[in-house]
Automatic annotation (TrEMBL):
GO biological process: translation
Protein name as annotated: Small ribosomal subunit protein eS8
InterPro entries: Ribosomal_eS8, Ribosomal_protein_eS8_arc, Ribosomal_Se8/biogenesis_NSA2
CDD domains noted in UniProt: Ribosomal_S8e
Keyword Ribosomal protein tagged: yes
Homology family: Belongs to the eukaryotic ribosomal protein eS8 family.
Pfam family, one: Ribosomal_S8e
Amino acid sequence: MKSHGRSTTKRTGGRRRPNHKKRKHELGSSPTETRVGDRKLKVVETRGGTQKIRAIQNDVATVATGDGETVSVEIENVSENEANPNYVRRNIVTKGAIVDTPEGRARVTSRPGQDGQINAVLLDE
């Protein structure tokens, strides 16, 4: 189980004895790696009684064109991703990824694992 609590080891390598066990407010989770595919969403409860919608898979992006209009297009594949070169092979979409669409190449501006949707801006080529 992931935790955002204090580490049990010191910088020097010495052992730090815990004052308490893991608490719910220290909970962490692994990142949601949104893949290109049929739309699949997951609702996650967060602190304060609110909810996050995570995109597990999505193949549709809302792309902003240069003239101030937005178009809903289908994502063909991921062509570049500065976050991790392995994400390109696995077709994982993150913020900053460059995706191929019928309109052209577009850079993702939203965080699909946090927002549940993919927004992008068309690149000038």
